[in-house]
Amino acid sequence: GESKLSGIFVKWGGWLMLPILLAQQVGVWMRLSAYGLTTSRVLGILVTALCAAVVITSLLRRRANWFFIAAAVMCAVFIASPLNAENLARYDQEQRLIYALGRNAMLTEDSRIIPNEKVNAEDVAVIYSAVDYLNQGTAPAGSFSASLQEQTAQLADELDSYRNSDAVKIA
Q: What is the value of pTM for the model shown?
């Protein structure tokens, strides 16, 4: 009955989890390479790493006494320290954006973004996804994200003023 079923799970469960972990890693890698790190992706990578460690431990027929300590340390580091998931994701998105803007001569020395109509489609996607991510939440004062949010707000105000002017009527 139940003990036979649990015996089968103990014997084969780790092997059955390997393709699932592989599929998870492939999916995360695809999203990461296309859109960079986000807070959810950082945490997803960490959970997947813990699961992979548990699966490998089970395949080696070892006890996982270390699991809760490892999970606690990971929580402390990636939630409550300066290396937290939000900061890592913001840094990654800032670097992606700065690189794409710099590659297309769209960034001044004082971190102002200037237009360039000759940006390739791949860089346009990087720029839009990074800007979209970085404009969420409140950025730390003095960061590139804060400068970006200020520029975006100023552009939105200018656009609203333009739309509301008597000279231009936009439906």
A: 0.77
